[in-house]
Amino acid sequence: MEVARPVIALGRDYSDGHVIAPHHHRRDQLLYGATGVVMVATGQGAWVMPPERGMWIPAGIVHDVRIMGTVRMRSLYIEPGVIKAMSGHCQVLGITPLMRSLLAEAVMVPAEYDEQGRDGALMALIQHEVPLLPVLPLSLPLPASRALAQLCRAFLLDPTPHTTIDGWSAAIGLSRRTFTRLFRKETGLSFVAWRQQACVMAALPRLAAGHPVTAVAIDLGYDNPAAFTSMFKRILGTPPAAYIQRER
């Protein structure tokens, strides 16, 4: 990967359940999954990347990756500072048809490509297109507090709308009032808002895999699928069935 080129591209396929241990890159990374769902977690938050979406991971950020379904991953590794308009934080991005085509071509380009030829022009166009990709609201902040972060990570693996403030505050030995203040301070969200966003993130891989909305709602612990649909629409702006149809 250490070649004297501003952008390089690599492709690799992963099977369902694969976990990439915490690591970081010297370069900025644009991660793209043509199929399957990818969850990325750092010390600051978690992100879900549905099929045919991308994720911007700035250089130096330690992150782990969880694979859901078979994922055809295509990644760009970009020298820091080459794309100055990008955020210094992780973000899930929409991938345009043009960018999708550029990624498919980029992984076929040799690492030491001719910067003055066709391959160099391709990589230069990528540098112009990446800052234009839309940011998607598929992130979930994680608290810095160790005990609180452990509860949040455990919740992401087994989410339910029935988890309560009283249960969590008792689990880490805080009063309800102190817990509420700490949670909002460290995540920027109320406990209820965070819990709802976590449930939406947990639902996305299942919906993308073709599971019925009613089944997903029940699996997440919702007694009434309409309540799940209402919550999903409030967060992502569209009902789950319409969202998945649009993503396809």
UniProtKB/TrEMBL annotation:
It comes from the Bacteria. PROSITE patterns: HTH_ARAC_FAMILY_2. It comes from Ancylobacter defluvii. InterPro entries: AraC-bd, Homeodomain-like_sf, HTH_AraC, RmlC-like_jellyroll, RmlC_Cupin_sf. Keywords: DNA-binding, Repressor, Transcription, Transcription regulation. This is Transcriptional regulator. Residues 146-246 form the HTH araC/xylS-type domain. One of its GO terms (molecular function) is DNA-binding transcription factor activity. The lineage of its organism: Bacteria, Pseudomonadati, Pseudomonadota, Alphaproteobacteria, Hyphomicrobiales.
